[in-house]
């Protein structure tokens, strides 16, 4: 099979987990290197032991190797702002796992193939990857006035990047609920839970459809089929039950609220299983990378199969 | 512990009727109610009046309940009403953001209280930094402090101090502490903080809001919280009027007008209350299980809808180590309890 060379920029937890996923299920991609900036990083040592080429020269390494066509950026928002420009000028495709959002948002089951002509796409946030599919699933059968998500993640799974930029999580996720989920208004809340043993990522998604006479059966069906679509790349993605209907006071009067209780358990490729929040990011990134790889190999937008 | 108050000084008193009380009021405060309460508190001599959604700025949501009146309007109302008291708001990073903080400053707050779960102080740095830059008095809130040891809390308090906190509070969000717990925690903070003052925020789920506040004062607490009629989450807070009476008797009255507060609690606050919080069956369960006091009304509602005893829901949430702000777990747990019952039959 013809393959496209890809590299991972960032040798932290996310980059390392993505490396395991690309080795396990490369599809049309060939992992050319894991690239960091710290020669002593644990991630680079792991890569070496797995026979993956490594570098600690950062972006310079990638720029010097034109055969690398797709770059997964798992560094930081600040670093990606710089990387985005360099990669664009060098004609590479950037799949951005940071909150920098230089390119359009992508959520695989909603708009994976819409941006295959772009040179930079952004994966929003872990909470966005988990909850936007469900909002969209409601929206496509019952247009959504308001969508609200609450992500609760294990404290241990929230690294310093998330902790120092928690506002960016809420801003970006809320925007994603609107721009990709379809809600007229979005709100995002994140909670870190320090329980031991660590809890699996839980998300609660509540939506208020615009029209009170929506078809609940259609909503349930749409949401359940979306669950199955996400499960195709995040096996630990599961709703606790069918969507629950509640009548609640809202700024728009008493309204029907559809509540969806979601759990995301990670695959445990490298990161622990409770860290479903990190797993869904790397699983989404792999899926987006695969779509780009097929497109680069000549498949049209509608022929891409991931 | 000895409740020796001979070395204690009159504390700074923050009244949170219009913030913690927002939980009991299901976030339905009107401008008129807020104006009346603020006027009373201002005249009675409290240092600061906290006003915002119960879950802090930006808390208006399906998760916590929507505000009837935009909190920025309520903040403006308090600011326009007061002559002496300072105006405060609460902010929980993860719920509210710097955007709402900026709006609140424009609406008139002079103090922000930045609250995190007591293990997660490091998510608040960007908010402290901005608050200091905007010239606010900045207070750190270590919520659910009963869940960790005094030494652990001292580390978290040091983080907040390093971000610029003027005061760091031990917050007994679950009303789960006994006087010794309050004493030891305040003492641990007093021992390590270099400049920051130490505060204590009580809930009355075990009937100890006043007792714990006294224990905190004996340990050196500089700031304490009250609410008229104890109007707050769970079984409520330490009643401001009751604190005034007690502090006055032990010679620590920080300038509060006791009789104004007694009259105001009865004639001003009385007609506003939706109900008088007290340690009822479910509130005691909250204190006993150590869960977030604001779960009370949500658990009662969801328990009724799903057909599960709220007491069972609350105890299970305690077992799962649910933390501040996790109201969405109530429905989750209720559905699971119902399911496991159905299976048992």
Question: If you had to describe this structure to a student in words, what would you say it looks like?
Answer:
Chain A has 306 residues and is of the alpha/beta class. In chain A, strand 2, helix 2 and strand 3 form a beta-alpha-beta unit. Chain A starts with a strand and ends in a 10-residue tail after the last helix. In chain A, the strands form 2 sheets. Chain A has a 6-stranded parallel β-sheet with strand order 3-2-1-4-5-6, with helices on both faces. In chain A, strands 7, 8, 9, 10, 11 and 12 form a 6-stranded mixed β-sheet that branches. Chain A contains 10 helices and 12 strands. Chain A is globular, with a radius of gyration of 19 Å. The model of chain A has no long low-confidence stretch (mean pLDDT 96). Chain A folds into 2 domains: 4-123 and 282-296, Rossmann fold, CATH 3.40.50; 126-274, 2-Layer Sandwich (Dihydrodipicolinate Reductase, domain 2). Chain B is α/β, with parallel strands linked by helices and 345 residues long. Chain B has 2 domains: 12-269, Alpha-Beta Barrel (TIM Barrel), CATH 3.20.20; 281-344, Helicase, Ruva Protein, domain 3. Chain B is built from 14 helices and 8 strands. Chain B has helices spanning 20-24, 31-44, 71-81, 98-107, 125-133, 150-163, 179-192, 209-218, 240-249, 258-269, 281-289, 295-306, 310-319, 328-344; strands spanning 12-18, 48-51, 86-91, 111-117, 137-143, 167-171, 197-201, 223-226. Chain B has an 8-stranded parallel beta barrel, surrounded by 7 helices. In chain B, helix 2 (31-44) packs parallel to helix 3 (71-81), helix 11 runs parallel beside helix 13 and helix 12 packs across helix 13. The N and C termini of chain B lie far apart (50 Å). The mean pLDDT of chain B is 97.
Tell me briefly what this model is.
The complex is a heterodimer of chains A (306) and B (345). With 306 residues, chain A is α/β, with parallel strands linked by helices.
